[in-house]
Every structure is written in C-alpha cells, then in structure tokens.
Write a structure and sequence with these properties.
Elements lengths: L1 E5 L6 H13 L11 E6 L5 E2 L5 E2 L3 E2 L10 E4 L11 H12 L3 E5 L1 H8 L13 H7 L14 E4 L2 E4 L4 H12 L4 H13 L2 H10 L3
Parallel strand pairs: 1-2, 1-6, 2-5, 6-7, 7-9
Antiparallel strand pairs: 3-4, 8-9
Helix pairs in contact: 1-5, 5-6, 6-7
Length: 207
C-alpha cells in the first residue's frame, strides 16, 4: 500500500503536516511492520519549495505512478492548481477517480479538480462554493457540494484548507493503517484537547 504525495511549488505545509508525520513515524500503525510507502511525486524530479520555504525532493514523477488497490493519491493545497502547469496532475487524478482509485485533495487542489470536471458528479467540499463557481466557470457540481470541513464520497476525499485535522482523519481511515478506535481517539484528542482521549489513544494500541 502506498500514499503518493504530490509535491509542487508553494505547497501548503500545514495542510499535510499531521498526516505526513503520522505516516512517516508509523507510531500508531496497527502493524508498524506493514508494507506501506509514502512517496513524493513531482511534475519533474527537480526540488520544490513549499509555501513555508521547506525544500522537497520528489522521489518520482507522475509517469512512474502505478496505482494499486488501497493506494491513495494526495493533492495538497498550493498556488499552482489554477495554472496550466498543474493540468497533467489534475487530469491524472480525474482519470484515477474514474478508474476507481482513491484520491484526496485539500484547499486549492479541490478547485483544481473542479476545473477539470472531476467534482461534477461526486460529493465534495472546497474552501467556498461561491469562490469555486467564480474561479471554475466550467464547474457543474453544485448539487454535490457539501458545506463541511471534510467530505468523503466513495473514493474521493476533499477538505477546506482550514481542516487539516479532519482531512488527515479521513485519509487515515481510507488507508486503514490504524485501528478504527485509534483514529477516533486521535481525532477527538486533537479537536477537544481533552485528556480522556489521550488515554483512549494509548489504550487503543494494546487492543
């Protein structure tokens, strides 16, 4: 099983920080030795600079991806999703969804998917419906729009840029690398900051 993280210039670090830390550390994995890979995918193999000024070196390019059952293609927010430079990635993601593969997108990446028609017939959210309609004239998915922090519709997860915890929670559930009770406790701990959920998180690892 693999998570393919698309890394592009101006990538929004904070939107994926919870997720990448948990997947890289494996500290809450149901089976820390499981066959899982976190791979960085670039438009080219050239390094990119995130919005926070962190430099990322892609592990591979888009043409090398071979999505298998259980894999997830993840598109973080960035400034480039409204530009032609992003079209190959967005079209790949749209085609992957059509083929039944799993895709997760947050913030500006959701608008990018809307721009290429990937959200016209799928439940989704974004930063704002009005902005989505304004910036994506070809968008036809208003009936499927949900005003929620994060939405999972079959094989697609979308989230607003203000919901990195909700986004991470949904992706972790989609990947099934944690026990359900672990994911629930982790999410509620981060949302409520109540001590009881820390204890439930720890307890979930000994089930």
């Amino acid at each position: 099983m693999k998570l393919y993280l698309v890394v592009v210039d101006t990538m929004a670090d904070w939107e994926i920080g919870y997720l990448t830390a948990e997947l890289h550390s494996r500290r809450f994995f149901a089976d820390p030795s499981m066959d899982f890979g976190l791979l960085k995918v670039g438009i080219t193999r050239d390094p990119i600079d995130s919005m926070g000024g962190v430099r990322y070196m892609p592990d591979m390019t888009l043409d090398a991806i071979q999505l298998q059952k259980g894999d997830v293609l993840l598109l973080p927010g960035a400034d480039i999703w409204s530009t032609p430079q992003a079209d190959p990635i967005l079209e790949f993601a749209r085609d992957a969804l059509d083929q039944g593969h799993q895709v997760a997108a947050i913030c500006g990446a959701t608008a990018g998917l809307a721009r290429v028609g990937a959200l016209d017939e799928r439940r989704h959210t974004s930063d704002d419906l009005g902005l989505l309609k304004q910036t994506c004239p070809g968008y036809r998915g208003e009936a499927f729009y949900r005003k929620e922090a994060a939405v999972r519709g079959d094989n697609l997860i979308t989230a607003t840029g203000l919901a990195p915890v909700e986004f991470s929670y949904e992706v972790l559930k989609m990947l099934k690398v944690w026990r359900p009770e672990t994911a629930k406790a982790w999410y509620r701990l981060h949302k409520t900051r109540q001590e009881r959920w820390y204890h439930e998180l720890v307890a979930s690892m000994s089930v």
